[in-house]
Amino acid sequence: MIFADLIYEKIEKSGNPTALGLDPRVEYIPDSIREKAGNDADSVLLFNERLIDILSDIIPVVKFQSAYYELLGPAGIAVLQKSMAYAKGRGMVVILDAKRNDIGSTAAAYAGAYLSDGHFAADALTVNAYLGSDGVRPFIDACKCYGKGIFILVKTSNPSSHEIQDLKLSDGMTVFEKMAEMVNGWGDGLVGSHGYNSVGAVAGATYPDELKRLRNAMPASFLLVPGYGTQGGGAADVANGFDENGNGAVVNSSRGIMCAWESDRLKGIFSHERFAEAARDEAIHMKNALSAAIGKENIKGE
Amino acid sequence: MIFADLIYEKIEKSGNPTALGLDPRVEYIPDSIREKAGNDADSVLLFNERLIDILSDIIPVVKFQSAYYELLGPAGIAVLQKSMAYAKGRGMVVILDAKRNDIGSTAAAYAGAYLSDGHFAADALTVNAYLGSDGVRPFIDACKCYGKGIFILVKTSNPSSHEIQDLKLSDGMTVFEKMAEMVNGWGDGLVGSHGYNSVGAVAGATYPDELKRLRNAMPASFLLVPGYGTQGGGAADVANGFDENGNGAVVNSSRGIMCAWESDRLKGIFSHERFAEAARDEAIHMKNALSAAIGKENIKGE
Q1: For residue B129, what is the DSSP state?
Q2: Are strands A93-100 and A249-253 parallel, antiparallel or unpaired?
Q3: B3-294, what's its fold?
Q4: Which of A200, A267, B164, B239 could serve as B293's disulfide partner, Cβ 3.0–4.6 Å?
Q5: Least CB–CB distance from A132: residue in B75, B103, B161
Q6: What is the pLDDT of residues B240-262, one digit of tens each?
Q7: Where are the domains positioned within chain A?
Q8: Among B74, B99, B167, whose Cβ lies nearest the Cβ of A101?
Q9: 3-class SS of residue A161
């Protein structure tokens, strides 16, 4: 099955277009786990497993942020690998958010590392395409070879994303609109049975107007939408990333779920030790908010 | 000592503005090393050590391409770490070419991974700034804190780099010229005693006219120039990256040195097993070609 169909169908089956963002910082992890593990890397592994165990029946997608694992050195990379395999074993779609970018054989090495059936075997990888097509082709080749996907950075969720991405070109378009046009072309030949292809785009929830324009400009690209919750994007904002049937996007929440126990809504209800239960409560809350915003049915809370 | 001074002085002392690119593919490594090592990751470590041993007295800078190590999984990352430490122990300036990019705390995690005194402790890291200033600030903060440097991708050496980087803006500038302008600003507060600062730029040798313009547009930025040799840039081309005194740039050669034994010039003279001697011959040849092109004295061959 190609990636475009995999993510579409997993989301459809669960009724939940949420990606669990696993960007674990050691301070997010409660004492009991840190004591049991004895070191930072193993703490992260246990923390991830707890979250995956309690969420994999209701959240279909997980996004690992590579930076936090790289920060822990080779042991952190081993934990990334194990966590990815664990999530896959629980039936989750695994996105590695590593924003890799290079050219020719070097891009092919990154694609081999993350999209082949090798050491990491993600279902999809985020890619920065500032280098142009020959920095993207090796990733597309890997998508074709292994049935995998990529998400190209188009419009990111951060305050200064305008500095390069919103620059106005001589033809009236912006840089990010030109990037969206290129993303459209890159998806040819990777179209799945639901009309979406395996070359998706990253489009931030914090710019809802741009998100709407990007949804229309890339009608066959799955959108990976960061910036929900802690970065300020709400359910109504991210709704702009979905098509008229409420499909075609996945919304990431990282700290919002991992640290739900200390959110305004749940503070005082769950202790740090009960972070996993709080995460499940928040995941259901988020799912219902998204469902309402995109016009789909709610699931019951527990 | 801040990075801007470190690289300037190491290059001045050696009289050689070359960076040894260690982008090792397993097929570059001769049988004897592969047999001795017994596995891919350890083969790469022995191969790197041989090259560093034979070149560190004449090449002042080494650039590791992260992709080839990531391709080998956690063991490859451990070899990257060991190779970086080995090169540092031999007195080389260590650049990690990983083109990292993200925002806020995630960018800070990458900066912590590679620019702190932690697991990898590179002297400098390549960074892709498509995300804008708040994707770069955490790296700059790390440069200030640890005396390290970054090289921002401005104009890359690949054929399709024009697709985004050369887009014409409504004010007549190109995207890469706007990026160069931003790089200029990011270097404030990191200026060393030779007039250069620790926020450098990647500017490809394959576009010599652009390289000249970028040298002038970023007068205080050290340039990291890829594309020499196998990608088609010659010594006259890369000369455009240097200032009027022949300073301010470092030229990378990866396959050209690692695989010198099979180059047109050296084929039949060195066997694959003698790759390290061929690499030294090529390094001296390249140094002399660069010296001639930028008007500095040659060193003697051996």
Answers
A1: -
A2: unpaired
A3: TIM Barrel (3.20.20)
A4: B239
A5: B161
A6: 999 999 999 999 999 999 999 99
A7: 3-294
A8: B99
A9: helix
